[in-house]
Amino acid sequence: MLARASTRERIADEARALLARVHRMRPMVVQESMTPAAAADVRTRRAIDVSLRRDQVRVKAELVRLLHWLTSSASADASSVELQDKLVRARLQFNDVLTNLDMFADALSQRSERDTGIWLAGLDVAAEDVLALPGYYETPPVLCYLDRGPGAAIRRARTRLPGGGDNPIALIQIPRERMVATGVAASLAHETGHQAAALLQLVEALRLELQQVDGEVWRLWERWISEIVADLWAVAKLGPTATMGLIGVLGLPTYFVFRISATDPHPAPWLRVKLSAAIGRALYPDAQWDELEALWDELYPISRASAAQRAGLAQLADSIDELAERLLAHRCAALSPRPLGDAIAIDDRSPAALRATLAEARWRERLPDARPSRALAVVGQARWTRAITPAAERRTISNLLATWAIRRTLGRAA
Fold first, then answer.
1. Which residues lie closer than 8 Å to 252 by C-beta, 6 or more apart?
2. How far is CA 318 from CA 189, 201, 284, 311, in A?
3. Cβ proximity of 368 and 357 under 8 Å
4. 187: nearest Cα among 158, 133, 145, 134
5. 8-state DSSP, 72
């Protein structure tokens, strides 16, 4: 008859089984199946695999230490409860590693879907361009993926991963419903704005500045400053296309549009669109911002809000222009000596510059040679002026995304 295994031996066997599973972890570059053009950028893949390899080494070392302890005299007097506790801790560490692995695997596996993979690779290129601010920081690797839901999101680079460790990339979630036209550009630019703000430490600096201003409305603007800065970034990079995108994504039931919440990090949608237009008006002066705001007022007249909501919204709306001026005039250490508005404004994103491009006979043919962020801004402007139909807009965006993905894969010369 076989001898009955001791508790220590059973615990050691479980640890060895975990170690065998750790050894089965493979780099993402040998796991995923997709066309080369749909693959993530080399820098992104390397960053992910280095991070996962670090996790693997860490949990492997922990399991080896546990096995050495279990087979040494040091564990001779340990109770079964203590043995089990150590095994459970090791298993939890392993599950943390798998959490990180699954997060990246889920994002990368979409690259194997027909069309979707190419779109996502093109969005990676666009996101890196929108995020770029030459001379101020190095753009981290970017990876885009699709998920359900009305809003986009970002897991910023250098923040803590769910399973522990620092995130090596900017991981941007795009709602599937936004993958129809230039609406995706506004969501993409907003999320990259969160990453840029973190790299420049803008939120902390602006929060300190707003704390010096008296008044309850400024306490609310301070509470919402993170989302406000992301909207500012989107307007700077895309011009009116950013505000058009906001109107699309914030077209919600009336109750939500007028709701003011001090616990929500987002301003009320009614205020948010108006602030986006005010920022654009201050950054790129043009009558088009008044047209966008007038459209929003027509869609959501403030008379539809309750009496209590109207009072709060009106008070906040009265301070919008001052807030926009404060934002653009803000000076932070990372951008010194230039004010924020001067550092991020781009002349060719103004409504006038975009209209001038649309006046050119072959503007569509030149889009692939423009910076991705400008190309998206031009197509959005074309949609606003009805120089392009919704169907043609979708085809144009799809072709641009594919072009950017292929060029990155083959090289610009090819």
1. 269
2. 27, 28, 21, 11
3. no
4. 145
5. S
Main-chain dihedrals φ then ψ at residue 413, nearest 5 degrees: -65, -40
Q: How far apart are CA 364 and CA 121, in angstroms?
A: 21
Q: Provide the residue ranges of all domains of the chain, joining segments of one domain with +.
A: 7-109, 182-349
Cβ neighbors of 115 (< 8 A, separation 6 or more) are: 398
- For the stretch 64-108, pLDDT in tens is 999 999 888 888 888 889 989 999 999 999 999 899 999 999 999
Compute the residue count for the chain.
414
Query: Distance (Å, rounded) from C-alpha 286 to C-alpha 292?
Result: 11
Cis peptide before 337 (omega within 30 of 0): yes
- 191 near 154, Cβ under 8 Å? yes
What is the pLDDT, as a whole number, of residue 3? 42
Tell whether the model's pLDDT for residue 57 goes beyond 60.
yes
* Cα 191–chain centre separation: 3
Q: For the domain 7-109, what is the CATH code? A: 1.20.5
Sign of CA dihedral 155, 161, 165, 168: negative
At residue 22 the predicted structure's pLDDT band, cuts being 50, 70 and 90, is confident
Asked if residue 382 lies in contact with residue 393, where contact means CB atoms within 8 angstroms, the answer is: yes
Count the alpha carbons within 13 Å of 279 in the hemisphere toward its beta carbon: 30
User: Cβ contacts of residue 63 below 8 Å, gap of 6+?
Assistant: 15, 18, 19, 22, 90, 94
Average pLDDT taken over every residue of the chain: 92
Residue 61, burial from CB neighbour count under 10 angstroms (0-12, 13-18, 19+): exposed
Q: Is the pLDDT of residue 32 over 90?
A: no
Residue 33 reports pLDDT greater than 70: no
Phi, psi of 79 (to 5 degrees): -80, 165
